[in-house]
Amino acid sequence: MAHTSTYRTRANAPDVAPLASYLLRLMSIKQTNLCLSADVETSAELLAVAEEVGDTICILKTHCDTVSDWNERTAKKLQDIARRKHFLIFEDRKFADIGETVRKQYTGGYHRIADWAEITNAHILPGPAIVDSLLLAATSTIAKYNTGVHTDISADAPSRTLNGDDDDDDEEDDDDDADKAQGNGTSVVDDAIESPMEGVDGGLDERWLSTKAADRKHSVVSISTTITSRTESISPHPEPDLHPEDAFNVDIPNLLARLGEAPYVRGLLLIAEMSSEGHLMTKEYSQQCLEIARNHQEFVLGFIAQRSMNSAPTDNFITMTPGCKLPPPGLEGQKLGDGMGQQYNTPHKLIFENNCDVIIVGRGITQAMDQRKEAERYRSRGWKAYEERIGVKQK
């Protein structure tokens, strides 16, 4: 697809992956092609920077294994911020092993990446089977999400009649309730445990302990498990006229509300090039990445690369590029590096000259005195470079 095509046009192209379509729409509405690389070491730092710059970015990139206190609550809180501020989460895992191993690394272990990160990435060193394995793992994660299991536990003393006898008529009501639950997409399973000493987690019910044995019949602990199937669409394709081309004359919050949350699907980026000096990824290697991506367009969103990989008229892959940094004011044009092999390019060079789609910025923002202000500086420069690429006249 032509480099001058807008993000919105590309989002509506045939055969575009659902997550790629959503991301391109999100970028167009928020007017940002900025991904923050949040390479921090604690959950507090991660959540703080996500909160601080979330309105400015389209993607937040993580390295969860560098966060010393990472846990499920970290992932949950990060997801909550992402939903509220409208950005996707990209775990920069760089898978590079045989199929069964990457499947376990992706869905299991301590981090369970597939549960909370919409995007991850991989090397193709093991061959195309790595993509197949990650796709199968992603598919199983989506299937698991679409079937929710919820358990409610209650422990109430049995009701009594005026003459002190137990009222056992509730059994018939329970049967009726169970019958009503069938056929509506929900199944209910009720179990009765006669003694609270045999109940949940082996614990004792305080109400049972406080009741004299002579005055009380064993209470009943009821465990009710509800299994529901989600019917929400995981492949949204909003209408082409979701928003006008003139992005400066629209109500962005309203458009974001219309766009809605990201679909619960997963996407993969293939690492075709790196920004480090002396990397060993040859042109032939990069071409193999492209061929593998073309065979997995439903799952592969695009590439980590230093230039657009789209070469055929039907290619519509998203290129995300690390190694982006703006010189300090007054030092424009100076070549920048970090002294450890990292080479930096400006947003204009990457977006306008190299036709990349998303700039990935890390320390330039995370180490800034004012993270929000610096993120806005990168967002503005990246967006202006994109507008120049597609032919929008600058004011």
TrEMBL record:
Pfam families assigned: OMPdecase
Highest taxon listed in the record's lineage: Eukaryota
Bias kind Low complexity: ranges: 224-235
Residues binding substrate, per UniProt: D39, K61
GO biological process, one term: 'de novo' pyrimidine nucleobase biosynthetic process
EC number from the UniProt entry: 4.1.1.23
Key words of the record: Decarboxylase, Lyase, Pyrimidine biosynthesis
Active-site residues from the entry: D92 (for ompdecase activity), K94 (for ompdecase activity), D97 (for ompdecase activity)
Associated pathway: Pyrimidine metabolism; UMP biosynthesis via de novo pathway; UMP from orotate: step 2/2
GO molecular function: orotidine-5'-phosphate decarboxylase activity
Gene Ontology CC terms: cytosol
Keyword Metal-binding: no
PROSITE patterns, alphabetized: OMPDECASE
TM helices/strands, residue ranges: none
InterPro entries in the record: Aldolase_TIM (IPR013785), OMPdecase (IPR014732), OMPdecase_AS (IPR018089), OMPdeCOase_dom (IPR001754), RibuloseP-bd_barrel (IPR011060)
Biased composition (Acidic residues): 164-178
Sequence segments annotated as region (Disordered): 153-203, 224-243
Orotidine 5'-phosphate decarboxylase domain segment(s): 33-378
Family assignment from sequence similarity: Belongs to the OMP decarboxylase family.
Protein name: Orotidine 5'-phosphate decarboxylase
Organism: Pleomassaria siparia CBS 279.74
